[in-house]
Amino acid sequence: MKNRKPMVAGNWKMNKTLGEAAELLEALKPELMGIETVDLVVCTPYIDLPLANEILDGSNIKVGAQNLHWEASGAYTGEVSAPMLKDLCEYVIIGHSERRAMFGETDETVNKKVVAALGSGLLPIVCVGETLEENEAGQTEAVVDRMVREGLKGLTAEEAAKIVIAYEPVWAIGTGKTATPEQANDVHKNVVRPILREMFGKEVGNGMRILYGGSVKPGNAAELFGQSDIDGGLIGGASLKSADFVGIVKGAL
């Protein structure tokens, strides 16, 4: 039996106006109230963060951002820093595959953002995962190994214990394809977990949560989350519909 508390985090990506966000949050709140055995997070666009805080105040649902800049302030037009976010959210997604593929995110910038987030008291959800080409070339282990080591480089065990890892095979995001529960768990258990133990010690490595992201649905959530080293999910498209997100959360109970 695993002793890590499961987590289900919704990544809204670039979706939901203020009105749409309010509607979704108001629908989620009563459905998820009272769930104590799963950590629940919604990661909204920046503009929705104040509203999410207002609506979810006093609930068991935490708020997260989807990105941040590593500098505390400065001439970085369009960017948002950790000190700006710390009063608006508890979690922040770092290194999502879309950030890496479309916006030049690298292992180095992921590491700088992780350090910045921790320095402001934010809890990072750090994404790692291989592309279809890398998967088919048998490079999954090498790619994930590099991303974990470089992304968490220089951290203490105490800092690492605050981090959540999300393994998201890029070929399974929004495609309808998904790794089988056994395939996903194999990466969690035999690639990511041993690296964490090596870097930060057995106790911390065994205690860190590793989420799965990649076409998780209400119909496959329970089987995925039932695997030995899958500690919940980072949910994309299905987090935009209250019934789907609630169904996935129930798969973690």
Secondary structure: elements and pairs:
Layout: E1 7-11, H1 18-32, E2 39-43, H2 49-56, E3 61-65, H3 82-85, E4 91-94, H4 97-102, H5 107-119, E5 123-128, H6 132-136, H7 140-151, H8 157-160, E6 164-167, H9 181-200, H10 202-207, E7 210-212, H11 218-225, E8 232-235, H12 242-251
Parallel strand pairs: 1-2, 1-8, 2-3, 3-4, 4-5, 5-6, 6-7
Helix pairs in contact: 1-2, 1-12, 5-7, 7-9, 11-12
Biggest beta sheet summary: 8 strands, parallel
Distance between the termini: 14 Å
Helix content: 40-55%
Coarse morphology: globular
Q: What would you give as the CATH superfamily of the domain at 66-241?
A: Aldolase class I
What is Rg?
17 Å
Quick structural overview:
This protein is of the alpha/beta class and 253 residues long. The protein is built from 12 helices and 8 strands.
Explained architecture:
This protein is α/β, with parallel strands linked by helices and 253 residues long. The protein has a domain at 66-241: Aldolase class I (TIM Barrel, Alpha-Beta Barrel), CATH 3.20.20. It has helices at 18-32, 49-56, 82-85, 97-102, 107-119, 132-136, 140-151, 157-160, 181-200, 202-207, 218-225, 242-251, and strands spanning 7-11, 39-43, 61-65, 91-94, 123-128, 164-167, 210-212, 232-235. The protein is globular, with a radius of gyration of 17 Å. The mean pLDDT is 96.
